[in-house]
Design a protein that fits this description.
This protein has 21 helices and no strands. With about 550 residues, it is mainly α. The protein has one domain. Helix 3 crosses helix 5, helix 10 packs antiparallel against helix 15 and helix 13 runs parallel beside helix 18. The two termini are about 30 Å apart.
């Protein structure tokens, strides 16, 4: 019994540590990706929202091509490497890595060429092609040449449950990308007084610059860890012989479902991209630029901010897949059940207060990044709650993939997309610019309900315990939300939320008050200790903090 408890705690600690590293990588890169918007948006004036609409449309297509070019292989590689490592067959994993790099390079070249030459067809706003959009899309195709290699290398490290290289590569990639974006935007718009389209093109080409730096840091980690990896290979059991052909068949068999489910959120966004413009145009008589501005408000402006907290879910998902795959390989049903509960508990513990907090400060935080805009702030408010459904979708589909329930994840996604498509027009008709977000929530909630029901029935995770923790987390988050709102309204008696500097002061003070309140309440109730485990309890003891 003691041995089992130690094993359980070790697995929980591995998940917490991996999630911490991936959270660091995701959050820092997302924060950098949001912060650059402040100077960039000012330099692009008065074309800020139009430029953002161009970027949003291009990135939706680009994200799909990235998923196609990587073919879901990074996630599948993490899963398969974890599987063979659990069997002490490290040499198979190394063979997979060597052969896989060549495959990813070929996929990159093919996908980049297709996106480049298909851009005129894809550059549509639902009614006609846009020459500006073609140039922006083509600037992103260069990144697709090398991102498959970057993603594959990350998947290899994740298969060893070594999340630090992936996290650091995310940070370095984003830092290089943001540096290029700001440098070129400043030179083109402020020094040369050039075209905003040229500035957007360079801002998107920055993805290729960032990817190159990301590959560089991963190559360094691979070199520095070669001794430990070679030792593991030398001590492999060598009882499993897998041909190169069989390896690729196995990987591609696992990878195809990853493409579809990883593209889930982007597929929801693509429905918005190709339906919002014609739908809103059929309902209201407004100019094309007005529609594009509304589209930018929810598709990029608000989305870029909520993806900071949705990235928390992505970090947990990446960590969960290899751990669940290893438990599944060993037929450890108790371990699977325990890990499912731990993953969902940790997600709720982090995501719900983050979403409620962002909703509470939606007005001043929108002002900081984009300037004061009441409609934009209101859309961000709804988007913040939407982040919970997007994040839970990400985590639950990752759990299903880790358990080799790929077909079921795809079925749930297709059903959710059908529901989203069916309710899209009624929601746009009723709620205008808010409609796509409402439709997304309806579709996502259907997927979430089905996935949770399946996991409870088939894997018997402790749903009653998770429900109790969910109630506690939500209660503390609602109290925090009300407290943050009160602090914000109090500060607005002296500070204007329409002023960027004043808005920054409001956000900093409100966030500090809200975070301290949530942390103290969860520690005093021992909710944090139960979810975060023994290491967190030990840290509290060292700091002489008592419940």
């Amino acid at each position: 019994m003691k041995e089992n408890n130690l094993k359980e705690q070790s697995t929980q600690d591995t998940f917490i540590k991996g999630s911490a590293w991936m959270t660091f990588g995701s959050i820092t890169s997302r924060i950098l990706g949001a912060l650059y918007i402040i100077p960039w948006f000012m330099w692009m004036a008065p074309y800020g929202n139009i430029a953002n609409a161009l970027t949003a449309r291009s990135y939706n297509i680009y994200s799909i091509f990235i998923l196609i070019s990587t073919a879901g292989i990074p996630g599948a590689v993490a899963k398969q490497v974890a599987k063979y490592n659990a069997l002490n067959e490290y040499e198979v994993g190394q063979k997979l890595f060597r052969k896989g790099l060549l495959l990813m390079a070929a996929l990159g070249v093919i996908s980049a060429a297709v996106m480049y030459f298909a851009s005129p067809l894809l550059a549509s706003n639902g009614s006609s092609s846009d020459p500006r959009q073609i140039a922006v899309m083509r600037s992103l195709s260069y990144a697709i040449l090398i991102i498959p290699i970057l993603s594959f290398m990350r998947g290899y490290f994740q298969g060893y449950t070594d999340m630090m290289p992936s996290a650091m590569s995310q940070f370095v990639e984003q830092l290089a990308r943001v540096t290029w974006i700001l440098l070129t935007a400043y030179v083109i718009m402020q020094v040369q007084h050039g075209s905003y389209v040229d500035a957007v093109v360079q801002s998107n080409f920055a993805a290729a610059i960032g990817a190159a730096f990301g590959i560089g840091i991963l190559a360094w980690f691979l070199f520095s860890r070669r001794k430990q990896m070679n030792e593991l290979v030398a001590n492999s059991a060598n009882k499993v012989q897998v041909s190169t052909k069989d390896l690729f068949v196995e990987i591609i068999g696992q990878a195809v479902p990853f493409v579809i489910t990883d593209a889930g959120i982007q597929l929801f966004y693509l429905i918005d991209q190709y339906t919002f413009h014609p739908m809103i145009a059929s309902i209201m008589k407004v100019s094309t630029n007005t529609i594009e501005t509304w589209y930018a408000l929810f598709a990029l402006n608000a989305n870029k901010l909520i993806m900071i907290i949705v990235s928390l879910a992505s970090a947990m998902a990446v960590t969960a897949i290899p751990l669940l795959s290893a438990a599944h390989t060993k037929h450890d049903q108790h371990g699977i059940s325990r890990q499912i509960g731990s993953i969902i508990d940790l997600f709720l513990f982090v995501m719900i207060p983050a979403a409620f907090g962002m909703a509470a400060i939606s007005k001043p935080i929108y002002t900081i990044f984009y300037g004061f805009d009441q409609l934009g702030s209101n859309i961000l408010y709804l988007s913040a709650f939407t982040a919970i459904t997007l994040g839970l979708f990400t985590v639950l589909t990752a759990i299903l993939q880790g358990l080799s329930e790929n077909g079921l994840a795809i079925k749930y996604l297709i059903l959710g997309l059908i529901i989203k498509f069916v309710v899209q027009y009624p929601m746009v008709y009723l709620f205008k610019a808010f409609g796509p977000l409402v439709a997304t929530n309806v579709g996502m909630l259907a997927i979430i309900w089905l996935a949770l029901k399946h996991l409870r029935v088939n894997y018997h995770f402790n749903a009653s315990r998770t429900s109790r923790r969910f109630i506690g987390i939500t209660a503390f988050s609602v109290l925090m939300f009300l407290l943050v709102l009160a602090v914000e309204k109090g500060l607005e008696l002296f500070l204007s939320p329409a002023n960027r500097l004043h808005a920054l002061i409001i956000v900093v003070i409100a966030v500090l008050v809200g975070a301290i309140f949530y942390v103290v309440m969860t520690i005093k109730s021992e909710l944090a200790q139960k979810i975060l485990g023994n290491k967190f309890t030990a840290i509290l003891a060292k700091l002489h903090i008592k419940a």
